[in-house]
Write a structure and sequence with these properties.
Layout (H helix, E strand, L loop, with lengths): L1 E2 L10 H9 L12 H14 L5 E5 L2 H12 L4 E6 L3 H4 L4 H4 L4 E4 L8 H13 L8 E8 L10 H13 L4 E4 L3 H6 L7 H7 L2 E5 L9 E5 L8 H7 L8 H10 L4 H22 L3 E2 L7 E7 H7 L3 E2 L1 E5 L4 E7 L6 H12 L1
Parallel strand pairs: 1-11, 3-4, 3-5, 5-6, 6-7
Antiparallel strand pairs: 2-8, 7-8, 9-10, 10-13, 12-13
Helix pairs in contact: 1-11, 2-11, 6-7
Length: 343
């Protein structure tokens, strides 16, 4: 069975596995107080151009989103996100489980608009009943978005300006950041993100690691006793080396960006194939997630040989499905898909 179901269906890059094996019998301090974790933090700080930034490694995306949002918000605040944002739709209520409400804005191909955010905040404070409402205390975006789209540098600067004006943090979900940075269409760099966001994370789970997300607090704004709070959420790994070794490898010799580039190159091949076969795209995604519209009958036929993800209903007879490439996708797999589609 050929699979384009997601970008985390493979295990880990061989270099990461090798590093884990080679260091396996070393006796290292726990909870991330080891030399590999420290090395990974320094490498990431250098990549961000922020030698004094604060970094914490966590295990997965949902865990990271929940902990960052919960620990940075005050009791009366919620987080603002696009209606299609990951925390709005695909987190199983993990944010609300902590008592934090997700406040939604319209989605524009997965993105939030700065002018609508500014209006939302000003309208909130103009409401005479705002003391009885959940205050906007943070803005959440993902890059890429749930639809594989990207914020431009101008859009990020505009969102950042609104957040700074209103003194609320801008939080970027970077679970698929490798694919955003490697996209041929982006004008946003990692240093731009570090400059414009108050907190963001570099995703490893979907970019070649077994697991792991690297959270970066850019303005000396890590919540007080953050490690303590992480542990309260049940998320502090005793064998923190597991994360440190993986990210130390990813941030060596540009491996992280190389893995992102492979996914983008294969996605471009995938797009060309779909266009050649006459498929219609739901939107133009410049990253590793491609969304196409299929007849429901076509979906059932194709599912017999290829795994992909249902995304949403399009109309009574069509649905939007997602094909995702990854750090491990090969040209040979694209060729195999070509044969299946030709049939």
């Amino acid at each position: 069975m050929l699979s384009f179901e997601s970008d985390y269906i493979e295990g880990a890059h061989p270099l990461i596995l090798d590093a884990l094996i080679k260091s396996n019998m070393e006796q290292l301090s726990g909870y991330g107080a080891d030399k590999y974790t420290e090395s990974a933090k320094k490498k990431l700080a250098d990549l961000c151009g922020l030698p004094d930034c604060q970094i914490q490694f966590l295990t997965g995306g949902t865990q990271t989103n929940q902990i960052v949002i919960d620990t940075m918000l005050r009791q009366f605040e919620g987080v603002v996100a696009a209606q299609t944002g990951h925390v709005s739709v695909h987190e199983a209520g993990a944010i609300e489980y902590t008592g934090r409400k997700v406040l939604t804005l319209p989605s524009h191909d997965g993105k939030m608009k700065a002018d609508e955010l500014a209006s939302f905040i000003s309208d909130f404070y103009a409401d005479g009943n705002c003391e009885h409402m959940v205050f906007p205390g943070m803005v959440y975006i993902s890059h890429p978005t749930e639809y594989g789209t990207l914020y431009s540098l101008k859009e990020l600067e505009e969102l950042s300006a609104v957040c700074q004006k209103n003194k609320i943090p801008l939080f970027m979900d970077g679970a698929r950041l490798a694919y955003a940075l490697a996209s041929h269409s982006t004008d946003v760099t990692l240093k731009d993100i570090a400059r414009l966001c108050d907190v963001f994370y570099v995703g490893g789970t979907k970019a070649g690691a077994l697991c792991g997300e690297a959270v970066v607090f850019t303005r000396n704004n890590m919540p007080l006793h953050f490690e303590h709070l992480v542990k309260k959420h049940g998320a502090l790994l005793a064998k923190g080396r597991l994360l440190g070794i993986q990210f130390d490898t990813l941030f060596t010799d540009d491996l992280y960006l190389k893995l992102g580039k492979n996914a983008i190159d294969r996605a471009e091949e995938l797009k060309s194939l779909f266009k050649e076969k006459g498929f219609h795209f739901y939107l133009d995604s410049p990253t590793n997630q491609q969304f196409i519209i299929l007849e429901n009958a076509q979906i059932e036929t194709l599912k017999a040989k290829v795994k992909f993800s249902f995304w949403e209903k399009y109309d009574d007879t069509h649905s939007v499905v997602r094909f995702a490439t990854s750090w491990a996708t090969t040209t040979e797999k694209i060729a195999m898909l070509r044969e299946i589609l030709s049939e």
